[in-house]
Amino acid sequence: MDRIARMQRIWDTICDIPAGSVASYGQIAEIAGIPRGARQVGHALRQLPDGQDVPWHRVLQVSGRIAFAKGSAAYKEQSKRLMMEDVTVIAGRVDMRKYRWQPDLDELLWKPSAAWDEE
DNA sequence: CTGATGACTATAG
DNA sequence: CCTATAGCCATCA
Question: Does the CB of A43 fall within 7 Å of any strand C atom?
Fold first, then answer.
């Protein structure tokens, strides 16, 4: 799997996160078929071109914290977007137990590109 | 090839 | 809860 395909799968997986839910970098990596690829998810998002419909703001650290430095422009933007989806953000933190995305088997089967077709 | 880096994570104190 | 450490792994100089 080359660099482009990996990015594409990461973006595709993030696009599956429903509004009002969030996921961690590691969770996205795992679903995209890249175990221990949390940093690669961050890397793919860093390269994300503007004007794309990828809901990058729904991706948080496993602790529920926003990955950007508190007060930075990106931090504010992400916080704002989450609030717009009725996700409560307190001091840059989200309650993962409440908002964490939990795709069921059907949802995964519906998008085979994600979980098992790695070759 | 080697070492540094980073939108990460798990663990220990 | 926070910091420090140690793994992690694709990229890049």
Answer: yes
Establish whether the CB of A26 is closer than 7 Å to any nucleic acid atom in strand C.
no
Written as six digits, the tokens of A21 are 């839910």
pLDDT digits (tens, 9 = 90+) for A1-30: 889 999 999 999 999 999 999 999 999 999
Q: Taking the C1' atom of C1, which residue's CA lies nearest?
A: A63
Rounded to two decimals, the pTM is 0.91
Give the CA-to-C1' distance from A53 to C13 in angstroms: 33
Query: At A93, is the secondary structure helix, strand, or coil?
Result: strand
Please check whether strand C approaches the CB of A79 to within 7 Å: no
Residue in the structure block whose two tokens are 């599956």 = A16
Class of domain A3-118: mainly alpha
Separation CA A40–CA A9 (nearest Å): 11
